[in-house]
Specification:
The chain has 163 residues and is of the alpha+beta class. Helix content is 52%, strand content 19%. The protein is elongated, with a radius of gyration of 27 Å.
Amino acid sequence: MAKKKLILIIVPVLLLLIGAGVFFSGVLNKKDADPKEAGHESAASEESGEHKEDEKSAKADPIFFEMPDVIVNIKGKGKTKATNFLKIKINLELGNPESLPIVEKRLPRLIDQMQTYLRELRVEDLEGSEGLLRLREELLKRIQATADGADIKDVLFAEMILQ
């Protein structure tokens, strides 16, 4: 009687594990489907032709704009409050080529926004990955507001030196 209970528990668990293994291994992937079913997929792919164009534009080479280096003094750490210097170089990822002239035209304002924000930082604000993430979000928000009309997707750190 105990053997039957054990078998009734182990067999479904093994079948479940085997099914999960087959599913996650990619054996059931649609790309490996029979060629007989290809006719059905081609009709569906013709209907979604515009989705392929969207994917191509998303996979197009990104456009980057290299900002000039910015060097600012920031508030130090500890009781002495010694002055530290931050040198930062960022690249802007643009969503379309039309954004490039807008960013170039507003470059002095973009640098001013960056310097104004960076000068208010403390050394503690830049510590760890959380500090860098917060810095990236703040810079992106301020740059997008200043370069209104430009499609700025991301701020990428090319170089950052804290001394």
